[in-house]
From TrEMBL:
InterPro entries xref list: DNA/RNA_pol_sf, Retrovirus_Pol_polyprotein, RNaseH-like_sf, RNaseH_domain, RNaseH_sf, RT_RNaseH
Residue ranges occupied by any RNase H type-1 domain in the UniProt entry: 233-308
Gene3D superfamilies named in the record: 3.10.20.370, Ribonuclease H-like superfamily/Ribonuclease H
PANTHER family the record matches: PROTEIN CBG26694, PROTEIN NYNRIN-LIKE
Domain Reverse transcriptase RNase H-like, first and last residues per copy: 23-125
Name this protein carries in UniProt: Reverse transcriptase
Record carries keyword Nuclease: yes
Length: 323
């Protein structure tokens, strides 16, 4: 019985193709996958009613790409497929089908405001005839397995979570980052806040720059903004810190969502917020270190005051007397 089972298993393993030969008369399918350290994808085609793998590809992200949002990392995986297998898929009149969980691809193809790396990616994607299909979850465990194979050993358990079927799993709450500054901390702190009027779509942000441990106010500004988000407040504050020549800064705000999105602890799915997050990351690399700390609103009253007064004034202003 054991020998018969072994022979059956051997037959199935040797008869099942790992990779199918590409057929240029059929549409190619790209299914990307990314984790914090790698960008991977599987190029597939339908054979015998099943979408089967044709090619695999993946790579480790560099130190700058590690800061990207997970949706941007999946774009890197897609661009790698288009580059690595260009000779195989280029010239086909049949659209290439891409399964994706994020809307950033559609934004890259349609946006008139993309800049930096997003503009470069959009121009490259424009060269291809693509058909985007939105999915709710990672559709390709093969790509996830490929990513796990090139992931640092200490993080394998985290990546393995992506391979567990979601059915029956209890949805875990988003992680909470709890940080405190030591009483003798010496350095620079940026506190920020933002607000908006729904009726007018006008908003404001307030930014304070402090030097610790004496909490000496270096700068306190209020800025009016159009259609503001709290992300704009953090970006404006970092620009102030850059102007002051700070090398290291602690960023304090009462928006848990903004803080955890910047830390990469939770996702950022709206294209507008993804662009803001990319702007934050571009500013963050100008510092030696940026430490993010979430506080309760009660402890962010200085920035909240600047924001509220700016919204009432409708113009920019600066605190002249720090006392």
């Amino acid at each position: 019985m054991a020998k018969e089972a072994f022979e059956t298993l051997k037959l199935k393993i040797t008869s099942t193709p790992l990779l199918r030969h590409p057929d240029c008369t059929k549409p190619f399918v790209i299914i990307p996958h990314a984790n914090p350290w790698t960008a991977c994808a599987v190029l597939r085609q339908e054979h015998e009613g099943i979408i089967q793998p044709v090619r695999f590809t993946g790579r480790v992200l560099n130190e700058f790409e590690l800061r990207y949002h997970i949706a941007e990392k999946e774009v890197l995986a897609i661009l790698r497929v288009l580059e690595q297998f260009r000779q195989l898929i280029y010239g086909s009149e049949i659209p290439i089908v891409i399964y994706t969980r994020y809307s950033i691809l559609k934004w890259l193809l349609r946006s008139n405001s993309a800049d930096g790396r997003h503009l470069k990616w959009g121009l490259e994607l424009w060269k291809w005839t693509l058909e985007l299909r939105r999915v709710l979850r990672d559709e390709d465990e093969l790509a996830a397995i490929l990513g796990a194979g090139i992931t640092p050993r200490k993080h394998l358990d985290e990546v393995a979570e992506n391979l567990i079927p979601p059915k029956g799993r209890i949805k875990a709450p988003p992680p909470i980052s709890v940080e405190m500054l030591d009483s003798d901390f010496e350095g620079y702190v940026l506190s920020f806040d933002g607000a908006a009027k729904v009726s007018t779509r006008l908003g404001s942000c307030g930014c304070n720059l402090w030097r610790l441990p004496r909490w000496h106010v270096l700068s306190a500004h209020g800025f009016p903004l159009d259609d503001v988000t709290v992300n704009d407040a953090s970006i404006t504050g970092l620009e102030l810190a850059v102007d002051h020549g700070f090398r290291d800064v602690v960023v304090v705000g009462d928006s848990r969502i903004v803080t955890q999105q910047a830390q990469g602890l939770i996702g950022c799915h709206q294209p507008n917020l993804q662009r803001r997050l990319a702007e934050y990351e571009a500013l963050a690399v100008k510092f030696g270190s940026v430490r993010l700390v979430h506080v309760k609103r009660d402890y962010n009253q200085a920035a909240d005051y600047l924001t509220t007064k700016t919204l009432a004034l409708g113009k920019a202003w600066v605190v002249e007397d720090a006392d």
